[in-house]
Design brief:
It is a single chain. The chain has 7 helices and no strands. By secondary structure, the protein is mainly α. The chain has one domain. The relative contact order is 0.19.
């Protein structure tokens, strides 16, 4: 993943209050899933993705307790949003 894309993901994930770009976001998130198309949905629908955030890995809670949400935010916020407290 290129640095600009990583920084963009990190900013949008941390700042989900930026708002969704379309009213169709809720349907897209439900039908597609933010984890399957992050380059599209996290950019266009940060609010809907954050609201539907769920952990995708069984070790998310353990990693979060070890500080990975801060030291590895891009991966953790995509894979473990609930453990990192990103749900609104």
């Amino acid at each position: 993943m290129r640095l600009s894309r990583i920084l963009c993901f990190q900013t949008l994930i941390i700042c989900a209050h930026c708002g969704d770009l379309t009213r169709e976001c809720a349907d897209w998130v439900k039908d597609i899933g933010c984890h399957r198309k992050p380059e599209l949905l996290w950019l266009a629908c940060p609010q809907a993705c954050t609201a539907s955030a769920r952990d995708l890995h069984p070790d998310c809670e353990d990693w979060a307790q070890k500080g990975e949400c801060m030291s590895n935010p891009v991966l953790m916020h995509l894979e473990c949003p609930q453990a990192c407290g990103l749900q609104v």
